[in-house]
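Weekly structure sync, notes
Attendees: PL (lead), two postdocs, one rotation student
Agenda item 3: pending single-chain targets
PL asked that the sequence for the first pending target be pasted directly into the notes so everyone works from the same version. It is reproduced below exactly as submitted, 294 residues in total.
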Amino acid sequence: MATVNLGSIKFNWQGAYAGGTAYAVDDVVSYNGSSYICKLASTGNLPTNNTYWDQMSSAGTNGTDLTTTLTTQGDIVYRDASGLARLGAGTAGQVLQSGGTGANVSWGTVSSDFVKLADTTTTGSESSIIIDGYFTSDYDFYKVFLSNLCINADTQGHIGIRYRISNANFTATGYYSSNDGTYKTSSATNNWNGGEWQNDKWGLGGWNMPTVNASGRYRTVNFEVTIPSPLDTNTYKNIQVHGGGWERAANYTYNINQIGSISTQDALSGITFYNVSGGTFASGCRIVLYGMKS
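Predicted structure, written out during the meeting:
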């Protein structure tokens, strides 16, 4: 009766194929990512030789080694017309843009007709609020929003505005404006009008600004200022203002509409807001500048 070695009724893993090794039936080796089982004892016969080996499993498709495609921090990979391709990092602030079906992706700069250029809040020690150095040929109009305006000391006075030329206030007596507004007391509604003629500033009406010690920090004034074409050297510079809020002692609220110009054709570099009677702005006054395309 034949003797059967039960320990041989199994696959015998031999690891990677070696040409000098003698392989017996049921030996299993790996070769080029696939596995093979020996069906006829041999030495030096490659596993791809079907006389001696049967294939047990086949190697899958290797993934692309992206370390050879992506070479620099910030690179991304995309599919172009022929395969995987590298797109190097764009410049700061750029965004990834699609060229549509059948086109490659690319970096591009976001274009907008209304862009925030500056945003600051007072700390409580500023005697004036200055916005300077932001006017460029990129925009045709500028908007300045002043919110939560209030001053610290009980100094009666309203907002004064001066344009800036070459980073300095324009203080010549060349300011002209007209304005009108309405103010409401507990018992009446009244209209008001005024303006400047050859003044050294624009004044936003005759209403006194709220002050911390007169009415508390919770009463404020707010303004929206439009500055058209500040770099145009062919015309005098203009301004438009709308706003209002509480007066100093909170006896009435008001609104104001104002247009003005200065008798200079010089390009502007900025604008200054201040209290015509002195005093510092309270903390929390916010100033935001936007550039607008026509």
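Discussion points:
- Residues 68-108 form one domain.
- The longest helix spans residues 212-215.
Action: rotation student to compare against the earlier draft before next sync.
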